[in-house]
Task: structure prediction
Amino acid sequence: MSEVVATLEYQGKQYTVHKHDWTHPDEDADEQEQERLVWWMWTEGNYGCDCNRFAFISYEHDDWPGESDESGKFPCGETITLVGLTLDGKDLLAPDPEMQMRERLAAIGLKPAWTLLGDFER
Ligand SMILES: [Zn+2]
Result:
């Protein structure tokens, strides 16, 4: 099991949240695959949305921001910024020449939007 630590910023304030028992669904996944999945989950995936980020903040911080609705759900949106992300202490947001965004997206089968516009490679 791994520990994911994310730092989220909302209205000028930073909140650190932890997932202590994160595991890759594929137990044979190597370190790079694990890093890619965590990065994806917190950017393009479910944890990229305010509703989940508000919930994570509320678990660990008494002064959590945002209002939940009657059913306890937080609104979706992109008002909470991800400013830090580590997997077992490794910084996943640090610039890494071997794992640029294009590679990361390609690794999970997505094409960056700008390649769909054509001519990017020329
Ligand atoms: Zn949402």
Remarks:
- Confidence is low (pLDDT under 50) at residues 118-122.
